[in-house]
Structures are given as C-alpha cells and as structure tokens.
Specification:
The structure is a homodimer.
Chain A lengths: L8 E7 L3 H12 L3 E7 L6 H5 L6 E3 L2 H5 L4 E4 L3 H14 L5 E4 L5 H11 L5 E2 L1 E4 L20 E5 L6 H14 L2 E4 L2 H29 L9 H7 L6 H10 L1 H23 L3 H16 L6
Parallel strand pairs in A: 1-2, 1-4, 2-3, 4-5, 5-6, 8-9
Antiparallel strand pairs in A: 7-8
Helix pairs in contact in A: 4-5, 7-10
Chain lengths: ~290, ~290
C-alpha cells in the first residue's frame, strides 16, 4: 500500500467489544491505524475490565459520548441492537466518520442504515467479517483470528466511494480478504455457507445425543469437527436464523432432498448412487482451502 | 502395567498397511511390543516402498507367507477384503496367534470369524480403532494419530479370554482408550457417532456446492470443520454405509425429523422452538471432549 493510502485515524470506537470487536480493536492498534481506541459497553460493571486492557483507552456506557468525535465506529453487538443503535449513531457521528458493523445479516441492517444515514455527513457501509469461533467473550480476543478470513462488505445506493475504499483498506490491513456484494446477495450466500452448516451441525448433534448419549464420548474427530459450531451461542443464532428465514427455508429444503435421496440409495442397496453422492461431496470439499 | 503383563511378541503382520495399518506398525515398534514387523500388500510394485520404511522388516504379496509364523495379525484392508481373508487366515495362523482387524463394521466380520475360527488354535477378536483422517495412505502414517483415540473391541462366544486381555493391552499400549461391546451394538453405535456424521457432512457439502458454488471459498472455519470428513474415500465409505444399512436408515429418519422440525420452527418464526433446539445442540456438544 502506498504511503498516501495508509490509514491514519485519530479515534475508533468499538460498540460492544466481544470476541470479534475486541480482536478488531487489538488489530487496529497493532497496525497503527488509530491512535485512540474507545469502547461502548452495555454493562457498567465491565468498564474496569476494558480499561485494564492495553488496547483500550476509554470505556463508557454512554453511547453518545462513545460516538461523538470518533473517526471510525464499528457496531459489534447482536443484530437487534445494531438495528436499534443505527438511528442514534447517524445522529451523533461526526462529519466524515466511517460507520460500519459486523452483523451476520446485512439486508435488514443496511435498509435501516440507508434510511437513517441518507443526507447525513457521516458514512455507513455494512461489513461482515467472517471471523470468530464457538467461543465468545473479550477474554479470547486476538488479532490472529482475523488473518486470512473473508470479510464481505455490502455497499448500497447511499455508499460514498471514498469511505468505501477506506473501509476496504481497513479490513485488508487487519488481515481480511475483502469481497463486495449487495446486502440481499450477502444474506443468501451466508445462509448457504454459514447458517445452513449451523443448522445441520445442530440437527446432527441432537440426533446423536438422542440415539446414543452414553457412547458419544467414543467419537473420533469426525463427529467433533462436524458438530463444533453447534456449541455457538443459542440466543445469537436464533436472531441470525430467524432473520434469514426465506433463504434458510429453501436451503433446508434442498438439504432435505439430498438427505432423502441418500437414504433411499442406502435402503435400496444402490451402491452406484451412494458412491456418486460421496464422490460429489469429496470433490466439492476439495475445493475448500483448509490453509486459510 | 506390571512387568509380567508387558507385551513381548516376536512377529506381527499388518495386512494392508494404509494410513492406519502403517501407524499401528510404527506404534508396535516404538513401544517395543514386537521384534519383527511384516506386511502383506496387494500390489507388488509397493513392496520396495514398504521395505524402505524403517518400521518394516519384510513385505510380501503372498498372504500365506505373511501369516504363517506371526504372533499377531492385524487385518487393515477394506471390509470386503477382510471378510475374504478371514477364512485363509484361520487356516494359516499358527497356534496361539492373535488375529484382529480394524474394520469399521463388526457384525459381518465377526460372524464370518466365528464360523471360521471355531475350533482353531489361533484366536480372533474384532477391533475398531477409531483413528484416521480424511487423508489416506502410508505416507501420512504416524503413531501419534493413535493417541487418546477410542478403540472398540467386540468379543463374541468364541473369544478366548487370555488373548482378549492381550489384545486389549496391545491397543492400550498403542495409546487407545479401549471399550468392549458386542458386534451388533458396535455397529449401531458407530452408525450414530461416525457414519451418520459422514452422511450429514456429505449432504451439507453437496447442498452448499449446488446452491453457491462460486461463493464457497468465502466460507469460514464453520463450513470447513463441518464438512471435513466429506473428503474421505468414497469407495471405502460406500462399503461402510451399505454394510450398516438398517441402523443408518433409522438414524437418517431421526435426523430428518429433527431437520423438519427445525425448518418448521424457522418458517413459523417460532423463536422459542429454534432456541430450544440450539440449546440442546449446544449442551450436547459441550459433552464432547475436544482435548482428546
């Protein structure tokens, strides 16, 4: 990146520093993109935990105080809270401020933002950095979890091209591979590559637990890998899954068709059909790059 | 383990040294349970590869030569070949020889072995060491893949208790946690904890690949973990799945019920029901110990 393109902001604000928000905060400081890092917290009792972290310069439960005067605002709360905060942030963000979020669904958030940021002098573009884990909480935060992960950003009609370019660079400097698509397409794609896997892992886990609770501990890495994400936060995932209802209902139906075909092939001893499904699965899996 | 209980055999034979067979060979040598390690190979051209490995003392495509004079025979080929070999091995194994296998299904193998080894002076007990990976082949062999994994051994009416105890110790010294159950129960349990996960991973992979082939590469670790085992060898898995038909058809039907309920809960915006399934999945997943 040429010197004149480098990101040098005075202050960034992380609204809701959980695992992802705090990891972003650490990355912003490490890469020297910002001088000051402020956080907004819902819970006053956690202020002292934040202040104790060396990446955090100031922590408050006052959203207005946290937003005003910031050059970059990253909304990292659950989706419902992001939607609620957008109106307030659009009122309080200073001219030129870049506002984004990390919500797993973009259509609803970006529609709300389009309405609220229209005509404002601050700029909103939605982001979905696909980093995280089944763990949650600031204590697991680490900028390494951001490296080589995908970040989808979702420009809309109100998106300002200069701030879009800046936002893209910020994610890239943090370590992400950035892709752009519109919010509708985003929700369809993550329904497929993220939400459906969560549903299938949960269904598998519940089936195994019902069928052989006593023998689950004998399992090899196969079951563990296949169900790891089922350990994710249920309330967070409820919001995500219900928020992507239409895409998910058709994706589940497609999975149901495949599962039914697989069952019929086994039940009828159709080795050719079983092998065909297994080979398609193997080939598709080999397209995924495990090294990043 | 008391000194008098330690395993000291002269010769072991691995029939079919793939990833698992060769890893067992390495472990037997490292733990000094055997002096000589022989292998039987289907393919003459691979003899020189085996002889080149420091854990291999002799390699042959002559099964009789490989079996005669051995104190421990481990059948590590695909299931169909194990079933075919059992009769020959029962004829050629020397008195007192411990014969076992590593097949993923035990009912069919143990039934065949009960018929063939009855009245013989060598002893068969089925084993299922649950180690391995979606990779295959001797070149990935490593005794580390055996550590802290489960091994199910499946005694039957013909099982000799002295050789059963020895076999149990051999697996334990190699690093396994050993559990005993009858062959029928084994097939039901692995249908649940191993075969159903393979089917669900394949179904998910095929659904994702059909729905968003261009965007699969954006996926995070969730999709990768959840589908890793779908990269396994299709021909091997065809044998396993068709060989466990009855158990798998009912397990798939149970998964179908859970999936349908999940879809209905999402389609009807039933947040309570969605959360309930997610919470059950989270709780069940937390029972699995990722550290072993």
């Amino acid at each position: 990146m040429a010197q004149e393109d480098s990101i040098k902001l005075h202050r960034a604000t992380i609204v809701g520093p959980g695992l992802l928000g705090a990891s972003i905060a650490i990355g912003l400081k490490e890469k020297e993109m910002i001088q000051e890092l402020w956080v907004w917290l819902r819970n006053e009792s956690k202020i002292k935990d934040c202040i104790g972290e060396d990446w955090c310069d100031y922590a408050t439960i006052n959203l207005k105080e946290a937003i005003q005067g910031s050059d970059l605002v990253v909304l990292c709360t659950p989706i419902e809270t992001i939607v609620k905060h957008i109106n307030l942030v659009s009122e309080w963000a200073k001219p030129g401020c870049i506002v984004t979020d990390v919500g797993s669904l973009k259509k609803r958030i970006c529609e709300e933002a389009e309405n609220r940021f229209k005509g404002k002098q601050s700029f909103f573009t939605g982001s979905h950095p696909m980093a995280g884990s089944e763990k949650s909480g600031m204590r697991y935060a680490d900028s390494k979890i951001l490296q080589n992960k995908s970040c989808i950003i979702t420009p809309t009609a109100i998106t300002d091209s200069v701030s879009l370019n800046k936002l893209e660079k910020i994610w890239e400097v943090l370590g992400f591979r950035v892709t752009k698509m519109n919010p509708d397409k985003h929700d369809q794609v993550v329904g497929c590559i993220s939400h459906l896997p969560h549903i299938m892992a949960t269904v598998l886990m519940n089936t195994v637990h019902n069928s052989c609770p006593q023998q689950m501990e004998l399992s090899g890495d196969g079951l563990k890998d296949t169900t790891r994400i089922a350990a994710g936060n249920p309330k967070l995932w409820e919001q995500i899954l219900l928020g992507n209802k239409d895409n998910l209902v058709s994706l589940i139906e497609e999975a149901q068709t495949h599962l039914q075909e697989f069952k019929e092939a086994i039940a009828s001893n159709n080795g050719e059909k079983v092998t065909e499904s297994l080979m398609q699965g193997q080939e598709a899996r080999q397209c995924l790059n495990d090294d990043r």
